[in-house]
Amino acid sequence: MPADRRIQDYRSTYNDIRDWLRQEKASTERVESTIDWGDVVFEVDLLKSQEINLDYILELIFEHNKKTKSKSELVGEVRRVIRASIGNRAKESLIVDFINQTNLDELGDKAGVIEAFFAFAQAEQRREAEELITDEKLNADAAKRYIATSIKREYASENGTELNSILPKMSPLNPQYLTKKRDVFQRISAFVEKFKGVGGKI
Question: What does the record list as coiled-coil region(s) (predicted)?
């Protein structure tokens, strides 16, 4: 049986291949290949069934912090685990910021680490939502409702009029309108991936 670290490396590599495959499918340039991607897709689906949850990662932070006392080593180890997890990859920067900005030695047990992380993540969620709204000059109330709804359902949607209602006043005939809409949607989608599951209010 391979060591845990080796298994995490395998998972991370499979996830990298999955992301690369998605980009290839989205590309307009198609290159003929003799690779049977069916096997890769099967392996990725298998990995999904063994998904690492967020609480496990946070408990790992507590355990490794007791052993190493080196934040750089802890961050390196946690990055490996996160990258092996499809569902938590978008939270990598959030978890790393938590490690770097928190005195982990003051947290007495695993429950303390989990509680501190969620408090940190919810504060970051509010700060980044305000930053996004200000940067993109969005309609603040409508944007907060749209983001909160997207986080609740765990994805952002372009359907309906919700997305249009948050955009700055601009004619749909303006050539920049579609670009602005796309950019805002992409930022909100990334925001939702990062913060879904952390709770709190926008």
Answer: none
The per-residue pLDDT for 154 is 92
| Predicted confidence band of residue 31 (pLDDT cuts 50, 70, 90) | low
Contacts of residues 125-134 at CB distance under 8 Å and 24 or more positions apart, as own/partner, are: 125/195, 125/198, 125/200, 125/202, 126/200, 126/201, 126/202, 128/191, 128/194, 128/195, 129/191, 129/202, 132/187, 132/188, 132/191
What is residue 172's DSSP assignment? T
Residue 20 burial (CB count, 10 A):
11
Q: Where in the chain are the domains?
A: 136-197
* Other beta carbons less than 10 A from residue 79's beta carbon: 15
pTM above 0.70, yes or no: yes
Mean pLDDT of 8-34: 70
